[in-house]
Specification:
It contains 18 helices and 7 strands. It has 488 residues and is of the alpha/beta class. Helix 1 crosses helix 11 and helix 15 crosses helix 18.
Length: 488
Protein backbone atom coordinates (compact mmCIF):
# COMPACT_ATOMS: atom_id res chain seq x y z
CA UNK A 1 0.00 0.00 0.00
CA UNK A 2 2.77 2.45 0.91
CA UNK A 3 4.51 1.82 -2.40
CA UNK A 4 1.26 2.41 -4.32
CA UNK A 5 0.72 5.77 -2.62
CA UNK A 6 4.29 6.78 -3.37
CA UNK A 7 3.93 5.79 -7.03
CA UNK A 8 0.74 7.87 -7.34
CA UNK A 9 2.49 10.80 -5.67
CA UNK A 10 5.43 10.53 -8.08
CA UNK A 11 3.07 10.40 -11.09
CA UNK A 12 1.27 13.55 -9.90
CA UNK A 13 4.64 15.24 -9.53
CA UNK A 14 5.66 14.20 -13.05
CA UNK A 15 2.51 15.83 -14.44
CA UNK A 16 3.25 18.99 -12.44
CA UNK A 17 6.87 18.93 -13.63
CA UNK A 18 5.80 18.83 -17.29
CA UNK A 19 3.44 21.75 -16.68
CA UNK A 20 6.22 23.64 -14.87
CA UNK A 21 8.71 23.09 -17.69
CA UNK A 22 6.23 24.46 -20.24
CA UNK A 23 5.55 27.54 -18.10
CA UNK A 24 9.30 28.04 -17.58
CA UNK A 25 9.85 27.86 -21.36
CA UNK A 26 7.35 30.70 -21.74
CA UNK A 27 9.29 32.68 -19.13
CA UNK A 28 12.48 32.24 -21.19
CA UNK A 29 10.69 33.45 -24.32
CA UNK A 30 9.25 36.41 -22.44
CA UNK A 31 12.62 37.46 -21.02
CA UNK A 32 14.87 36.88 -24.01
CA UNK A 33 12.72 37.37 -27.12
CA UNK A 34 12.14 41.06 -27.64
CA UNK A 35 10.43 41.02 -31.02
CA UNK A 36 7.56 43.46 -31.04
CA UNK A 37 4.62 43.74 -33.44
CA UNK A 38 5.07 46.36 -36.13
CA UNK A 39 2.71 49.25 -36.77
CA UNK A 40 0.85 50.57 -39.77
CA UNK A 41 0.31 54.21 -40.56
CA UNK A 42 -3.25 54.58 -41.75
CA UNK A 43 -3.91 57.09 -44.52
CA UNK A 44 -7.49 57.22 -43.30
CA UNK A 45 -8.60 55.84 -39.95
CA UNK A 46 -11.06 52.92 -40.22
CA UNK A 47 -14.54 52.80 -38.73
CA UNK A 48 -14.54 51.17 -35.29
CA UNK A 49 -17.48 49.77 -33.36
CA UNK A 50 -17.08 49.57 -29.59
CA UNK A 51 -19.26 46.92 -27.97
CA UNK A 52 -20.12 47.14 -24.27
CA UNK A 53 -21.77 43.87 -23.13
CA UNK A 54 -23.69 44.41 -19.86
CA UNK A 55 -25.65 42.29 -17.43
CA UNK A 56 -26.82 43.89 -14.17
CA UNK A 57 -23.99 46.40 -13.78
CA UNK A 58 -25.71 49.13 -11.80
CA UNK A 59 -22.55 50.25 -9.97
CA UNK A 60 -20.30 50.66 -13.01
CA UNK A 61 -22.46 51.17 -16.12
CA UNK A 62 -22.33 54.96 -16.01
CA UNK A 63 -18.60 54.98 -15.35
CA UNK A 64 -18.04 52.70 -18.34
CA UNK A 65 -20.11 54.71 -20.82
CA UNK A 66 -18.59 58.00 -19.62
CA UNK A 67 -15.10 56.61 -20.17
CA UNK A 68 -15.82 55.17 -23.63
CA UNK A 69 -17.25 58.39 -25.08
CA UNK A 70 -14.04 60.16 -23.97
CA UNK A 71 -11.93 57.94 -26.22
CA UNK A 72 -10.02 60.11 -28.68
CA UNK A 73 -11.25 59.07 -32.13
CA UNK A 74 -13.10 60.88 -34.93
CA UNK A 75 -16.83 60.91 -34.16
CA UNK A 76 -17.75 60.00 -37.72
CA UNK A 77 -15.53 56.91 -37.47
CA UNK A 78 -16.79 55.66 -34.12
CA UNK A 79 -19.89 53.66 -33.22
CA UNK A 80 -20.76 52.58 -29.68
CA UNK A 81 -23.13 49.71 -28.91
CA UNK A 82 -24.43 49.30 -25.36
CA UNK A 83 -25.47 45.62 -25.41
CA UNK A 84 -27.63 45.37 -22.31
CA UNK A 85 -29.07 42.06 -21.09
CA UNK A 86 -29.84 43.47 -17.64
CA UNK A 87 -32.91 42.83 -15.54
CA UNK A 88 -32.40 45.55 -12.88
CA UNK A 89 -31.98 49.32 -12.73
CA UNK A 90 -28.91 49.07 -14.96
CA UNK A 91 -31.44 49.39 -17.81
CA UNK A 92 -32.59 52.86 -16.79
CA UNK A 93 -29.06 54.07 -16.09
CA UNK A 94 -27.76 52.79 -19.42
CA UNK A 95 -30.66 54.26 -21.40
CA UNK A 96 -30.22 57.61 -19.67
CA UNK A 97 -26.53 57.71 -20.55
CA UNK A 98 -27.16 56.70 -24.15
CA UNK A 99 -29.80 59.42 -24.55
CA UNK A 100 -27.43 61.99 -23.02
CA UNK A 101 -24.63 61.23 -25.46
CA UNK A 102 -26.88 60.85 -28.48
CA UNK A 103 -27.92 64.46 -27.89
CA UNK A 104 -24.23 65.42 -27.95
CA UNK A 105 -23.83 63.90 -31.41
CA UNK A 106 -22.28 60.53 -30.54
CA UNK A 107 -23.20 57.49 -32.61
CA UNK A 108 -24.25 55.40 -29.63
CA UNK A 109 -27.09 52.89 -29.46
CA UNK A 110 -28.82 51.09 -26.63
CA UNK A 111 -29.49 47.50 -27.71
CA UNK A 112 -31.46 45.04 -25.61
CA UNK A 113 -32.51 41.53 -26.62
CA UNK A 114 -35.79 39.95 -25.64
CA UNK A 115 -34.01 36.90 -24.21
CA UNK A 116 -30.48 36.39 -22.87
CA UNK A 117 -29.78 33.56 -25.29
CA UNK A 118 -26.11 32.61 -25.48
CA UNK A 119 -25.17 34.99 -22.65
CA UNK A 120 -22.21 37.26 -23.55
CA UNK A 121 -21.44 35.47 -26.82
CA UNK A 122 -25.06 35.87 -27.86
CA UNK A 123 -25.03 39.58 -27.03
CA UNK A 124 -21.84 40.21 -29.01
CA UNK A 125 -23.18 38.28 -31.99
CA UNK A 126 -26.51 40.14 -31.83
CA UNK A 127 -24.76 43.51 -31.89
CA UNK A 128 -22.46 42.40 -34.67
CA UNK A 129 -25.42 42.02 -37.04
CA UNK A 130 -25.90 45.80 -37.15
CA UNK A 131 -22.33 46.94 -36.41
CA UNK A 132 -20.82 49.38 -38.90
CA UNK A 133 -17.18 48.95 -37.94
CA UNK A 134 -14.39 47.33 -39.85
CA UNK A 135 -12.93 46.69 -36.40
CA UNK A 136 -14.77 45.67 -33.23
CA UNK A 137 -13.44 46.79 -29.84
CA UNK A 138 -14.89 45.16 -26.71
CA UNK A 139 -14.88 46.40 -23.13
CA UNK A 140 -16.45 44.67 -20.15
CA UNK A 141 -18.19 46.73 -17.50
CA UNK A 142 -15.26 46.65 -15.06
CA UNK A 143 -12.92 48.54 -17.43
CA UNK A 144 -12.12 52.22 -17.85
CA UNK A 145 -10.35 52.43 -21.21
CA UNK A 146 -7.65 55.02 -21.83
CA UNK A 147 -8.62 57.96 -24.02
CA UNK A 148 -5.85 57.07 -26.48
CA UNK A 149 -6.74 53.37 -26.64
CA UNK A 150 -7.95 53.24 -30.24
CA UNK A 151 -5.27 55.54 -31.62
CA UNK A 152 -2.63 53.38 -29.93
CA UNK A 153 -4.14 50.00 -30.83
CA UNK A 154 -5.40 50.41 -34.40
CA UNK A 155 -1.87 50.85 -35.90
CA UNK A 156 -1.02 47.29 -34.74
CA UNK A 157 -3.35 45.98 -37.42
CA UNK A 158 -0.26 46.10 -39.61
CA UNK A 159 -1.76 44.00 -42.39
CA UNK A 160 -4.99 42.28 -43.33
CA UNK A 161 -4.03 39.00 -41.63
CA UNK A 162 -3.94 40.56 -38.16
CA UNK A 163 -7.19 39.46 -36.54
CA UNK A 164 -6.80 40.73 -32.96
CA UNK A 165 -4.89 43.38 -31.05
CA UNK A 166 -4.97 42.63 -27.32
CA UNK A 167 -3.88 45.05 -24.61
CA UNK A 168 -2.55 44.26 -21.15
CA UNK A 169 -4.87 44.61 -18.19
CA UNK A 170 -3.98 47.07 -15.45
CA UNK A 171 -5.70 47.22 -12.06
CA UNK A 172 -7.49 50.19 -10.56
CA UNK A 173 -7.85 48.59 -7.12
CA UNK A 174 -4.71 46.45 -6.84
CA UNK A 175 -3.96 47.82 -3.36
CA UNK A 176 -7.55 47.65 -2.07
CA UNK A 177 -7.03 44.45 -0.08
CA UNK A 178 -4.90 41.34 0.22
CA UNK A 179 -7.34 39.55 -2.09
CA UNK A 180 -6.89 42.07 -4.90
CA UNK A 181 -3.14 42.02 -4.37
CA UNK A 182 -3.10 38.23 -4.72
CA UNK A 183 -5.08 38.41 -7.94
CA UNK A 184 -2.49 40.70 -9.47
CA UNK A 185 0.19 38.03 -8.87
CA UNK A 186 -1.72 35.60 -11.09
CA UNK A 187 -2.81 38.15 -13.70
CA UNK A 188 0.62 39.79 -13.97
CA UNK A 189 2.09 36.36 -14.67
CA UNK A 190 -0.53 35.68 -17.33
CA UNK A 191 -0.12 39.01 -19.10
CA UNK A 192 3.68 38.89 -19.07
CA UNK A 193 5.02 35.33 -19.06
CA UNK A 194 2.08 33.63 -20.78
CA UNK A 195 0.71 36.20 -23.21
CA UNK A 196 4.04 37.79 -24.15
CA UNK A 197 5.94 34.49 -24.00
CA UNK A 198 3.48 32.78 -26.32
CA UNK A 199 3.19 35.69 -28.71
CA UNK A 200 6.93 36.24 -29.02
CA UNK A 201 7.59 32.54 -29.63
CA UNK A 202 5.00 32.13 -32.37
CA UNK A 203 2.45 30.22 -30.28
CA UNK A 204 -1.25 30.99 -30.01
CA UNK A 205 -2.48 33.60 -27.55
CA UNK A 206 -6.04 34.39 -26.58
CA UNK A 207 -8.22 37.44 -26.75
CA UNK A 208 -8.94 38.08 -23.08
CA UNK A 209 -12.64 38.81 -23.54
CA UNK A 210 -12.18 42.55 -23.15
CA UNK A 211 -9.76 45.42 -23.74
CA UNK A 212 -8.95 44.27 -27.27
CA UNK A 213 -9.98 44.81 -30.86
CA UNK A 214 -11.10 42.28 -33.47
CA UNK A 215 -11.03 42.56 -37.22
CA UNK A 216 -14.62 42.04 -38.37
CA UNK A 217 -13.33 39.87 -41.22
CA UNK A 218 -11.53 37.65 -38.70
CA UNK A 219 -14.66 37.09 -36.62
CA UNK A 220 -16.69 36.17 -39.69
CA UNK A 221 -13.99 33.94 -41.19
CA UNK A 222 -13.55 32.01 -37.92
CA UNK A 223 -17.26 31.27 -37.70
CA UNK A 224 -18.42 34.02 -35.36
CA UNK A 225 -19.16 33.90 -31.65
CA UNK A 226 -20.20 30.50 -30.29
CA UNK A 227 -22.09 30.09 -27.02
CA UNK A 228 -21.24 26.42 -26.42
CA UNK A 229 -18.46 27.24 -23.92
CA UNK A 230 -18.22 29.65 -20.97
CA UNK A 231 -15.09 31.23 -22.47
CA UNK A 232 -16.30 32.36 -25.88
CA UNK A 233 -13.22 34.57 -26.16
CA UNK A 234 -10.77 31.65 -25.85
CA UNK A 235 -12.83 29.52 -28.22
CA UNK A 236 -12.99 32.12 -31.00
CA UNK A 237 -9.29 32.94 -30.49
CA UNK A 238 -8.24 29.37 -31.26
CA UNK A 239 -10.64 28.97 -34.16
CA UNK A 240 -9.33 32.19 -35.70
CA UNK A 241 -5.64 31.31 -35.31
CA UNK A 242 -6.22 27.84 -36.72
CA UNK A 243 -7.59 29.69 -39.77
CA UNK A 244 -4.27 31.48 -40.12
CA UNK A 245 -5.11 34.80 -38.46
CA UNK A 246 -2.34 36.59 -36.56
CA UNK A 247 -2.81 38.03 -33.07
CA UNK A 248 -0.76 40.95 -31.77
CA UNK A 249 -0.32 41.32 -28.03
CA UNK A 250 0.71 44.85 -27.04
CA UNK A 251 2.15 44.69 -23.55
CA UNK A 252 2.93 48.40 -23.46
CA UNK A 253 -0.75 49.32 -23.95
CA UNK A 254 -2.54 48.97 -20.62
CA UNK A 255 -6.28 48.92 -19.97
CA UNK A 256 -7.33 49.76 -16.38
CA UNK A 257 -9.84 47.40 -14.80
CA UNK A 258 -11.50 46.64 -11.47
CA UNK A 259 -10.63 43.39 -9.69
CA UNK A 260 -13.23 41.39 -7.72
CA UNK A 261 -13.19 42.47 -4.06
CA UNK A 262 -14.92 39.45 -2.52
CA UNK A 263 -13.90 35.78 -2.40
CA UNK A 264 -17.24 34.63 -3.92
CA UNK A 265 -16.76 37.11 -6.77
CA UNK A 266 -13.25 35.83 -7.40
CA UNK A 267 -14.46 32.22 -7.24
CA UNK A 268 -17.26 32.90 -9.73
CA UNK A 269 -14.76 34.41 -12.17
CA UNK A 270 -12.23 31.59 -11.78
CA UNK A 271 -14.91 28.90 -12.06
CA UNK A 272 -16.12 30.37 -15.36
CA UNK A 273 -12.59 30.65 -16.72
CA UNK A 274 -11.59 27.15 -15.54
CA UNK A 275 -14.68 25.34 -16.75
CA UNK A 276 -14.72 27.31 -20.00
CA UNK A 277 -11.09 26.45 -20.69
CA UNK A 278 -11.86 22.74 -20.17
CA UNK A 279 -14.79 23.05 -22.58
CA UNK A 280 -12.53 24.74 -25.12
CA UNK A 281 -9.88 22.04 -24.69
CA UNK A 282 -12.40 19.33 -25.45
CA UNK A 283 -13.72 21.28 -28.44
CA UNK A 284 -10.51 22.62 -29.98
CA UNK A 285 -7.52 20.37 -29.22
CA UNK A 286 -8.45 17.72 -31.84
CA UNK A 287 -8.86 20.45 -34.48
CA UNK A 288 -5.62 22.10 -33.36
CA UNK A 289 -3.58 18.95 -34.03
CA UNK A 290 -5.21 18.54 -37.45
CA UNK A 291 -4.39 22.14 -38.39
CA UNK A 292 -1.38 23.42 -40.37
CA UNK A 293 0.12 25.10 -37.30
CA UNK A 294 3.71 24.43 -36.24
CA UNK A 295 4.44 21.68 -33.72
CA UNK A 296 5.39 24.36 -31.18
CA UNK A 297 2.06 26.14 -31.65
CA UNK A 298 0.17 22.86 -31.30
CA UNK A 299 2.04 21.82 -28.16
CA UNK A 300 1.89 25.19 -26.39
CA UNK A 301 -1.69 25.67 -27.54
CA UNK A 302 -2.69 22.33 -26.03
CA UNK A 303 -1.10 23.21 -22.70
CA UNK A 304 -2.78 26.61 -22.92
CA UNK A 305 -6.20 24.99 -23.21
CA UNK A 306 -5.39 22.47 -20.47
CA UNK A 307 -4.07 25.11 -18.03
CA UNK A 308 -7.11 25.07 -15.74
CA UNK A 309 -6.47 21.37 -15.05
CA UNK A 310 -3.73 22.48 -12.66
CA UNK A 311 -6.50 22.72 -10.04
CA UNK A 312 -6.95 18.95 -10.38
CA UNK A 313 -3.25 18.55 -9.58
CA UNK A 314 -3.54 20.80 -6.53
CA UNK A 315 -6.56 18.89 -5.23
CA UNK A 316 -4.78 15.57 -5.84
CA UNK A 317 -1.81 16.72 -3.73
CA UNK A 318 -4.20 17.71 -0.94
CA UNK A 319 -6.10 14.42 -0.93
CA UNK A 320 -2.98 12.23 -1.07
CA UNK A 321 -1.03 14.22 1.52
CA UNK A 322 -2.07 12.21 4.60
CA UNK A 323 -1.67 8.76 2.96
CA UNK A 324 1.72 10.03 1.82
CA UNK A 325 2.67 10.97 5.38
CA UNK A 326 1.80 7.44 6.48
CA UNK A 327 3.72 5.89 3.57
CA UNK A 328 6.81 7.99 4.23
CA UNK A 329 6.80 6.89 7.88
CA UNK A 330 6.63 3.26 6.76
CA UNK A 331 9.34 3.68 4.12
CA UNK A 332 11.60 5.97 6.15
CA UNK A 333 14.46 3.46 6.04
CA UNK A 334 14.30 3.14 2.23
CA UNK A 335 17.32 5.10 0.97
CA UNK A 336 15.98 5.55 -2.58
CA UNK A 337 12.80 7.13 -1.22
CA UNK A 338 14.75 9.69 0.79
CA UNK A 339 16.85 10.45 -2.31
CA UNK A 340 14.04 10.94 -4.81
CA UNK A 341 11.79 13.22 -2.76
CA UNK A 342 14.01 16.36 -3.07
CA UNK A 343 14.06 15.98 -6.86
CA UNK A 344 10.27 16.14 -6.88
CA UNK A 345 10.49 19.73 -5.64
CA UNK A 346 12.09 20.94 -8.90
CA UNK A 347 8.67 21.83 -10.33
CA UNK A 348 8.02 24.11 -7.35
CA UNK A 349 11.28 25.96 -7.98
CA UNK A 350 10.44 26.40 -11.67
CA UNK A 351 6.95 27.74 -10.89
CA UNK A 352 8.37 30.13 -8.30
CA UNK A 353 10.73 31.48 -10.99
CA UNK A 354 7.79 31.91 -13.36
CA UNK A 355 5.81 33.96 -10.85
CA UNK A 356 8.84 36.05 -9.88
CA UNK A 357 9.52 36.75 -13.55
CA UNK A 358 5.90 37.59 -14.16
CA UNK A 359 5.87 40.15 -11.36
CA UNK A 360 9.41 41.48 -11.69
CA UNK A 361 8.40 44.76 -13.37
CA UNK A 362 6.01 45.61 -10.58
CA UNK A 363 8.60 44.76 -7.95
CA UNK A 364 11.16 46.94 -9.74
CA UNK A 365 8.82 49.93 -9.39
CA UNK A 366 8.11 49.19 -5.72
CA UNK A 367 11.24 47.68 -4.10
CA UNK A 368 9.32 46.95 -0.89
CA UNK A 369 7.38 44.33 -2.83
CA UNK A 370 10.57 42.32 -3.29
CA UNK A 371 10.62 41.76 0.46
CA UNK A 372 6.88 41.15 0.61
CA UNK A 373 6.73 38.80 -2.37
CA UNK A 374 7.41 35.56 -0.43
CA UNK A 375 4.46 36.37 1.84
CA UNK A 376 2.28 37.38 -1.10
CA UNK A 377 3.21 34.24 -3.04
CA UNK A 378 2.49 31.90 -0.12
CA UNK A 379 -0.83 33.69 0.43
CA UNK A 380 -1.60 33.22 -3.26
CA UNK A 381 -0.97 29.47 -2.92
CA UNK A 382 -3.16 29.31 0.19
CA UNK A 383 -6.03 31.08 -1.57
CA UNK A 384 -5.90 28.82 -4.62
CA UNK A 385 -5.61 25.65 -2.53
CA UNK A 386 -8.76 26.80 -0.74
CA UNK A 387 -10.80 26.98 -3.95
CA UNK A 388 -9.24 23.92 -5.61
CA UNK A 389 -12.23 21.65 -4.97
CA UNK A 390 -14.69 24.15 -6.44
CA UNK A 391 -12.46 24.77 -9.46
CA UNK A 392 -11.84 21.06 -9.99
CA UNK A 393 -15.57 20.43 -10.15
CA UNK A 394 -15.82 23.08 -12.87
CA UNK A 395 -12.94 21.56 -14.83
CA UNK A 396 -14.44 18.07 -14.62
CA UNK A 397 -17.86 19.38 -15.68
CA UNK A 398 -16.19 21.08 -18.63
CA UNK A 399 -14.54 17.88 -19.80
CA UNK A 400 -17.75 15.90 -19.29
CA UNK A 401 -19.79 18.43 -21.27
CA UNK A 402 -22.11 19.45 -18.44
CA UNK A 403 -23.52 22.89 -19.24
CA UNK A 404 -24.08 25.68 -16.74
CA UNK A 405 -25.15 29.30 -16.75
CA UNK A 406 -22.71 32.14 -17.46
CA UNK A 407 -22.27 33.65 -13.99
CA UNK A 408 -20.99 37.20 -14.20
CA UNK A 409 -18.31 38.58 -11.91
CA UNK A 410 -19.88 41.25 -9.66
CA UNK A 411 -18.39 44.74 -9.80
CA UNK A 412 -19.01 47.39 -7.15
CA UNK A 413 -17.03 50.47 -8.25
CA UNK A 414 -15.07 50.15 -5.01
CA UNK A 415 -11.51 51.10 -5.81
CA UNK A 416 -9.70 52.71 -2.92
CA UNK A 417 -11.81 53.38 0.18
CA UNK A 418 -12.84 50.43 2.35
CA UNK A 419 -16.57 50.77 1.80
CA UNK A 420 -18.90 48.29 3.42
CA UNK A 421 -20.23 46.00 0.73
CA UNK A 422 -22.87 44.38 2.92
CA UNK A 423 -25.80 46.23 1.36
CA UNK A 424 -24.55 46.11 -2.19
CA UNK A 425 -26.40 44.07 -4.78
CA UNK A 426 -24.80 41.04 -6.44
CA UNK A 427 -22.90 40.23 -3.25
CA UNK A 428 -25.05 37.47 -1.80
CA UNK A 429 -24.76 33.72 -2.37
CA UNK A 430 -26.35 30.53 -1.13
CA UNK A 431 -24.47 27.59 0.37
CA UNK A 432 -24.33 24.43 -1.71
CA UNK A 433 -23.28 20.79 -1.40
CA UNK A 434 -19.78 21.81 -2.49
CA UNK A 435 -19.43 23.79 0.73
CA UNK A 436 -20.18 20.65 2.75
CA UNK A 437 -17.30 18.83 1.05
CA UNK A 438 -15.08 21.87 1.65
CA UNK A 439 -15.93 21.60 5.34
CA UNK A 440 -14.96 17.91 5.27
CA UNK A 441 -11.56 18.84 3.80
CA UNK A 442 -11.08 21.30 6.68
CA UNK A 443 -11.71 18.42 9.11
CA UNK A 444 -9.36 16.24 7.06
CA UNK A 445 -6.69 18.92 7.32
CA UNK A 446 -7.11 19.17 11.08
CA UNK A 447 -6.73 15.40 11.48
CA UNK A 448 -3.64 15.46 9.26
CA UNK A 449 -2.03 18.20 11.33
CA UNK A 450 -2.54 16.13 14.47
CA UNK A 451 -1.32 12.93 12.78
CA UNK A 452 1.80 14.58 11.30
CA UNK A 453 2.55 16.13 14.70
CA UNK A 454 2.65 12.63 16.19
CA UNK A 455 5.01 11.53 13.41
CA UNK A 456 7.19 14.62 13.74
CA UNK A 457 6.57 15.30 10.03
CA UNK A 458 7.25 19.04 9.72
CA UNK A 459 6.58 19.15 5.97
CA UNK A 460 3.23 17.40 6.46
CA UNK A 461 2.25 19.82 9.23
CA UNK A 462 3.11 22.87 7.12
CA UNK A 463 1.33 21.62 3.99
CA UNK A 464 -1.79 20.58 5.92
CA UNK A 465 -1.84 23.92 7.75
CA UNK A 466 -1.67 25.85 4.46
CA UNK A 467 -4.48 24.04 2.66
CA UNK A 468 -6.64 23.94 5.81
CA UNK A 469 -6.25 27.70 6.18
CA UNK A 470 -7.17 28.17 2.52
CA UNK A 471 -10.33 26.10 2.86
CA UNK A 472 -11.22 27.84 6.14
CA UNK A 473 -11.00 31.27 4.49
CA UNK A 474 -13.00 30.06 1.50
CA UNK A 475 -15.69 28.36 3.59
CA UNK A 476 -15.87 31.27 6.03
CA UNK A 477 -16.40 33.73 3.20
CA UNK A 478 -19.11 31.52 1.68
CA UNK A 479 -20.86 31.26 5.05
CA UNK A 480 -20.69 35.02 5.58
CA UNK A 481 -22.19 35.84 2.19
CA UNK A 482 -24.82 33.15 2.68
CA UNK A 483 -25.93 34.90 5.88
CA UNK A 484 -26.13 38.15 3.92
CA UNK A 485 -28.50 36.41 1.51
CA UNK A 486 -30.77 35.30 4.37
CA UNK A 487 -30.81 38.75 5.94
CA UNK A 488 -31.45 40.58 2.65
Amino acid sequence: MAYLVLIIYILINVVLLVYSIVEFSLLINYLFRKNRPSKRKWDELPIVTIQLPLYNETYVVERLVDAVVKIDYPKDKLEIQVLDDSTDDTIEKAKRKVDEYQQQGFDIQYIQREQRVGFKAGALDFGLKTAKGQFIAIFDADFIPRTDFLLEAIPYFENEKVGVVQSRWAYLNEDYSLLTKLQTVMLNTHFSVEQAGRNRSGAYINFNGTAGIWSRKCIDDAGGWHADTLTEDLDLSFRAQMKGWKFNYVMDLDSPSELPITVPGYKAQQFRWSKGAAECAKKNIPALWKSNSTFWAKMIGSFHLLNSSVFLIVLAFILISMPLAYSMSVLKDETWVQTIIPFLLVSNVLLLCVFIGGNSKGMAKKPIEILLFPIIFISFLVMNMGISLYMSIGVIEGYLGKKSEFVRTPKFNVLKSKKSTEKLKYNRINLSLVNVFELLIIVYGGVQIAYCSCLGDIFGIVFASLFTLGFLLNFGSSLYHSLLAKNA
